[in-house]
Amino acid sequence: MGLVKSLLLLPLGPVNGVRWVVDVLVGEAERELAERESPQRRLADLDARCANGELSDAEAEALEAELIEQLLARHGLSGGP
Fold it and tell me: Does some domain include residue 7?
């Protein structure tokens, strides 16, 4: 039965290959999107904007505190004393 099944499903091989490629591409796109929106990445962008003079010190500190809270929340930690 296994040989007959293999012969009957042989024409679907390219379809299965395409499905696998699509699954890999979707996974990679989701990983890149999550990385782009990560608090660590946003902190690095914040530092760059502050170094370029785009933000005042007060604005940078407020945004940094918010990002750190998000980072702590993501890891299940509390930001309060």
Answer: no
Q: What is the CA radius of gyration of the chain?
A: 23
pLDDT at 28: 95
4 in a structural domain: no
Token look-up 């395409």 returns: 18
Q: Looking only at Cα atoms, what is the longest distance across the chain?
A: 73
* CB-side neighbour CA atoms (13 Å) of 49: 15
Span 72-81, pLDDT tens digits: 887 777 655 5
Contact 41, 35 (CB under 8 A): yes
What is the span of the domain harbouring residue 58?
26-75
Query: How many whole angstroms from its chain centre is CA 76?
Result: 18
